[in-house]
Specification:
- With about 675 residues, the chain is α+β, with helices and mostly antiparallel strands.
- Among the domains are: about 250 residues, Vaccinia Virus protein VP39 (Rossmann fold, 3-Layer(aba) Sandwich), CATH 3.40.50.150; about 100 residues, no CATH class; about 90 residues, no CATH class.
- It has 22 helices and 26 strands.
- Strands 1, 2, 3, 6, 7, 8, 9, 12, 13 and 20 form a ten-stranded mixed beta sheet that branches. A six-stranded antiparallel beta sheet has the order 16-17-18-19-21-22.
- A hairpin with a 5-residue loop joins strand 10 and strand 11.
- The chain is globular.
- Its EC number is 2.1.1.203.
- It is found in: Nucleus; Secreted, Extracellular exosome.
- One of its GO terms (molecular function) is tRNA binding.
- Belongs to the class I-like SAM-binding methyltransferase superfamily. RsmB/NOP family.
Length: about 675
C-alpha cells in the first residue's frame, strides 16, 4: 500500500477482543476507527480505489458504495493536501439500499469532509445530473467511477462460511445481467479520458471477464482495458482469462450460446460466453484484468478491471442536449434499458414525444413552485410519491440566502475572512429556528441546486456551527463545531487563543478546568476576550523535538472563570495518545467480580419474581443476530463475515453462566465491537 499507510495483523477477532494482553491495542483500534484515523477493511478491497489514480480535482462517482470503506479511501485521496480546505473534486456515493445508505453516512462522517454526498438510487439507472458551467447547463460527466458491483461473493470463502453452504452456479447467472447494466450505466456517465474500475469479490468469469468482454464489444472501440501491470508492484496477481464454460445449477455445461436449449435461454444469456472471434478477443486484452487468488498472499479472492474511455459510447455519439429554458425534471435525461435479441442493452437518452407532452403539462403546474424554491436555495427530496413509500423522508437542504440576517453576527463575532464562501452554508430546516449550519464545497452546491428534483440525497455537508442559546447574550447564537473546525479555521481571524502543550493536556483531560490552571500567557489572552465560543490552537515548536510536532485546532468555550474544550471523547483520546499521555484504562478485576455478584443477586430475584428463562432470551438474541448478519452478508460479502455469528454465540454462551443482565451487557459490547471490526 502506498506510503506504508496500510497495516495487517494475523490476530482473529475473538483473540483481539478477549485477550487481556491485547486489551489496550483493541481499545486503540476501536477509538481511532470511531474518529476516522483508522479504517478497518479487507486487504483486497483496498485495491480498486488505488487503481483509480484519484487527484484532488476529480469528480468521482461510487456506484455501489455501502458500507463505505472504499468511499473513505476516495475521500482521503481528495484531501491529499491537508492545507486545502475545499478540494475542487467531490465524491458522490450511491447505494440502492436505503438502510445501508445510513451506514455509508456513518463511515463518511468520520472523515469530516465537505466534498461528499450520499445518494440513494438504483445504480443501473442512476440519473444524469446537470451542473451550471458559466451560466449554461451541462451534463455532469465523472472523471473517475468506482463500480464495485453486487456479486456472489465466492472469493470470500476463507472467512465467509455461508458461501460453502449456499453457493451455486445459479448465483452468477442471476447477477450477470445486473452487473452488466450497472457497468454500462457507469461508462455512459464517464468523461472522455476518464477511468472506471470494475471489481467483484468473486472469481467466476461470468461475473467478471464476461461482463468486461460484453462491455468492450458493444463499446465498439470507445473503451479499452488499461494495462496496470506496473501499478501496485508488491501485489501478486494473475491475468484475466479468455476461455470459460457456462454451467447450470443441475450440472449441465455449455461452451457456446447456440448449444443452449430454448427453454434455458432466459437463464443463460449470450453475453455470458467468451468471444469466439480470435482477432476480436486479442484486441480486447482481457489478460489485463487482475485476478487475486486467496492463497497467493493470504487474502480474499478478488477481480479488478480498469477501463479507460476514449470516446463517447456509440449510442451516445450525440451527447444529450440540455434545454436551458425548461426547469429540470427526472424525464429530461431519463435512461431506459431494454434487452434486445442478442442480449445486449440498448440505451436511449432522448425523451419520447408522449413524455414531452406529459412533461409540458407537468412543467406548467410545477414551474412556479420550482422557480420559487430555486430562488430560495431549497433542495428538497424528489416530489415523486414512489420515493416516499420506502426509506425515510429526508429533510430538505436549504442554502442560506446572501442577505440572511443569521449570518451577520456570526461573521462579525469570528471576524470571518471576506473570501469565506457563505453561499455554501446550508441548513436542514425550511421553517423555524435553524439549529445546525452545514458547509459543502462550491462544486457540490452546484450539483445540489441543479438536481434537487431528480436526486434522492440522504446526506451531505459537514457541521460547522451549532446553535447555543447561552451564546446569544455574548453576541453570537452559534458555537463552533469540532467536526468542521479544520475546514473553517483558515477563514477565522478572531477568538483564537494560542496554547502550549501543557494547556492542551489540561483541556483534554479535565472537563471544565478553572482559568487558574492554565499558563499565565493563556490567562492574559483570555482576560481580553468576551465570553463565548473560541478556537484553541497549538502550534508545534521545532526547537522542542520531544513535544508533539503536528498542529492541533480545538473548539472551546470561555466562561467567567473557566475554559473548556468541546471535543468528542475518541478525538480527545487520539490527541492525548499523540502527546504520549497514557489513556488506556484496564478493567479492574475487583470491580468486575463485585458487579458480577450484584448482577447474580438481581438475576435470581428477577427469575423468582417473573419466572424468566435465560436460555429462551439467549436463543432469541442469537436468532436475531443470525438474521441481522445473514441480511448483512447477502448485501456485502467482502466487508462482512459469517464468523460474527459464531463469535456472538460464543459470547452469549459464556455470559449466560453469570446472569441475565450480564448477558445483555455482554451482547451490547459484542455488537459495538463488531461494528468497529
Amino acid at each position: 500500500y502506498p506510503e506504508e499507510l496500510a497495516w495487517h495483523t494475523n490476530l482473529s477477532r475473538k483473540i483481539l477482543r478477549k485477550s487481556p494482553q491485547l486489551e489496550k491495542f483493541h481499545q486503540f483500534l476501536v477509538s481511532e476507527t470511531e474518529c476516522g484515523n483508522i479504517s478497518r477493511q479487507e486487504a483486497v478491497s483496498m485495491i480498486p480505489p488505488l487503481l483509480l489514480n484519484v487527484d484532488p480535482h476529480h469528480k468521482i462517482l461510487d456506484m455501489c458504495a455501502a458500507p463505505g470503506s472504499k468511499t473513505a479511501q476516495l475521500i482521503e485521496m481528495l484531501h491529499a493536501d491537508m492545507n486545502v480546505p475545499f478540494p475542487k473534486g467531490f465524491v458522490i456515493a450511491n447505494d440502492v439500499d436505503n438502510k445501508r445508505c445510513y451506514l455509508l453516512v456513518h463511515q463518511a462522517k468520520r472523515l469530516n469532509s465537505p466534498c461528499i454526498m450520499v445518494v440513494n438510487h438504483d445504480a443501473s439507472s442512476i440519473p444524469n445530473l446537470q451542473i451550471d458551467v458559466d451560466g449554461r447547463k451541462e451534463v455532469l460527466f465523472y472523471d473517475r467511477i468506482l463500480c464495485d458491483v453486487p456479486c456472489s461473493g465466492d472469493g470470500t470463502m476463507r472467512k465467509n462460511i455461508d458461501v460453502w453452504k449456499k453457493w451455486t452456479t445459479q448465483n452468477s447467472l442471476q447477477l450477470h445481467g445486473l452487473q452488466l447494466r450497472i457497468a454500462t450505466r457507469g461508462v455512459e456517465q464517464l468523461a472522455e479520458g476518464g477511468r472506471m474500475v470494475y471489481s467483484t469479490c468473486s472469481l467466476n468469469p461470468i461475473e467478471n471477464e464476461a461482463v468486461i468482454a460484453s462491455l468492450l464489444e458493444k463499446s465498439q472501440g470507445a473503451l479499452e482495458l488499461a494495462d496496470v501491470s506496473s501499478e501496485l508492484p508488491g501485489l501478486k496477481r494473475m491475468p484475466g482469462i479468455t476461455k470459460w464454460k457456462v454451467m447450470l445449477k443441475d450440472g449441465q455445461w455449455f461452451e457456446e450460446w447456440k448449444d443452449v436449449p430454448s427453454n434455458r435461454q432466459t437463464q443463460i444469456r449470450p453475453t455470458m460466453f467468451p468471444v469466439k472471434d480470435e482477432e476480436k478477443l486479442k484486441a480486447m486484452n482481457l489478460e489485463r484484468c487482475l485476478r487475486i487468488l486467496p492463497h497467493h498472499q493470504n487474502t480474499g479472492g478478488f477481480f479488478v478491471a480498469v477501463l479507460i474511455k476514449k470516446s463517447p459510447m456509440p449510442w451516445n455519439k450525440r451527447q444529450p442536449k440540455v434545454h436551458q429554458k425548461l426547469p429540470q425534471r427526472t424525464g429530461d435525461t431519463e435512461v431506459t434499458a431494454a434487452n434486445s435479441d442478442n442480449g445486449s442493452e440498448c440505451i436511449t437518452e432522448e425523451p419520447t414525444l408522449a413524455e414531452n407532452e406529459e412533461s409540458k403539462k407537468m412543467q406548467e403546474l410545477q414551474n412556479s413552485d420550482t422557480e420559487q424554491s430555486k430562488k430560495e436555495g431549497v433542495c428538497g427530496p424528489p416530489p415523486s410519491k414512489k420515493m416516499k413509500l420506502f426509506g425515510f423522508k429526508e429533510d430538505p437542504f436549504v442554502f442560506l440566502p446572501e442577505d440572511d440576517p443569521l449570518f451577520l453576527p456570526i461573521q462579525k463575532f469570528y471576524a470571518l475572512d471576506p473570501s469565506f464562501p457563505k453561499m455554501n452554508l446550508l441548513t436542514r430546516t425550511q421553517e423555524g429556528k435553524k439549529r445546525q449550519l452545514y458547509m459543502v464545497s462550491k462544486e457540490l452546491r452546484n450539483v445540489l441546486l441543479n438536481n434537487s428534483e431528480k436526486m434522492k440525497v440522504i446526506n451531505t455537508g459537514i457541521k460547522v456551527w451549532s446553535r447555543n442559546s447561552d451564546g446569544e447574550q455574548f453576541g453570537c447564537a452559534f458555537r463552533l463545531a469540532q467536526e468542521g473546525i479544520y475546514t473553517l479555521y483558515p477563514f477565522i481571524h478572531a477568538r483564537i487563543i494560542n496554547v502550549c502543550i501543557e494547556d492542551v493536556k489540561i483541556l483534554l483531560t479535565q472537563e471544565n478546568p478553572f482559568l487558574s490552571k492554565f499558563s499565565s500567557e493563556t490567562q492574559k489572552k483570555v482576560k481580553d476576550m468576551a465570553m463565548g465560543s473560541i478556537v484553541l490552537k497549538y502550534d508545534p515548536d521545532p526547537e522542542k523535538p520531544d513535544d508533539l510536532q503536528c498542529p492541533i485546532v480545538l473548539c472551546g468555550w470561555q466562561g467567567k472563570t473557566s475554559l473548556r474544550a468541546f471535543v468528542p471523547k475518541n478525538e480527545r483520546l487520539h490527541y492525548l495518545r499523540m502527546m504520549g499521555v497514557e489513556v488506556f484504562k484496564a478493567k479492574r478485576k475487583e470491580e468486575e467480580s463485585e458487579s458480577k455478584m450484584e448482577e447474580e443477586v438481581q438475576h435470581r430475584l428477577a427469575q423468582t419474581e417473573e419466572g424468566m428463562d435465560v436460555e429462551d432470551k439467549e436463543h432469541d438474541l442469537v436468532t436475531k443476530m443470525e438474521a441481522e448478519i445473514g441480511e448483512e452478508s447477502t448485501h456485502s460479502p467482502v466487508e462482512s463475515s459469517a464468523m460474527e455469528v459464531e463469535n456472538k454465540i460464543e459470547d452469549l454462551d459464556q455470559s449466560s453462566k453469570n446472569a441475565n443482565s450480564h448477558v445483555s451487557q455482554e451482547s451490547k459490547d459484542t455488537d459495538t465491537s463488531n461494528v468497529k471490526d
